Amino acid sequence: MKSRSQDQSLSDSRELDRSYDPLTGNISDDDHLSTVRYQPQRLDHLVHQTNFSKKELQVLYRGFKNECPSGVVDEETFKSIYSKFFPQGDSSMYAHFLFEAFDTHNNGSVSFEDFVVSLSIILRGSITDKLNWAFNLYDLNKDGCITREEMTNIMDSIYDMMGKYTNPCIRDNAPKEHVDNFFQKMDKNNDGVVTIEEFLDTCQKDESIMQSMHMFDSVI
């Protein structure tokens, strides 16, 4: 019978020579190794970082590797994958904004860790966590406030993604009306920007705003 230290040594050696997948527990063949360039953190670490179980993480990882064999996804690949969910419209600009929100290290790529940490917040985070993530998505230049221009860009990208031939038909001025309503409710001091404090306070107190945010949950 092998000792625990022997088992750990075997696992460590597999990770060092990149023949061991720490999430699936599989030993990869040489052909596959030539493709994979990035290995994620160990499963136990990701369980602590997210609200997903080990089983759920393994399922998510297999799907991620199927789409991104290299272990990371760049923006163009991300856009291509995302466009499959919205064939009726142009999702490229919203996918660009979404990619930047997932790319937490600002290195032009999204790793599996980046992906599942954000997905965990979106699907299973607290209300505050979800609102903070949404604010970061809308704050395009990451300066700590949302401008009217930023919110207009977000709304335009969402309506472009939904397509022009929806039923009922979307009015041309719908994005502007949405932005006007957003600032009327959230810009408490009328200074032309929405801060994180204004955003959190308004959303948590206004049920209609919470519902309007959930309206776009399916685009993520």
Automatic annotation (TrEMBL):
The family this protein is said to belong to: Belongs to the recoverin family.
Region span, Disordered: 1-28
Annotated GO biological process: regulation of potassium ion transmembrane transport
Keywords per UniProt: Calcium, Lipoprotein, Metal-binding, Myristate, Repeat
GO molecular function: calcium ion binding; potassium channel regulator activity
Biased composition (Low complexity): 1-11
GO cellular component, one term: voltage-gated potassium channel complex
Protein name listed in UniProt: EF-hand domain-containing protein
InterPro entries attached to this UniProt entry: EF-hand-dom_pair, EF_Hand_1_Ca_BS, EF_hand_dom, Recoverin
Record-linked CDD domains: EFh
Domain EF-hand stretches: 90-125, 126-161, 174-209
Main function: May be involved in the calcium-dependent regulation of rhodopsin phosphorylation. Binds three calcium ions.
UniProt organism field: Etheostoma spectabile
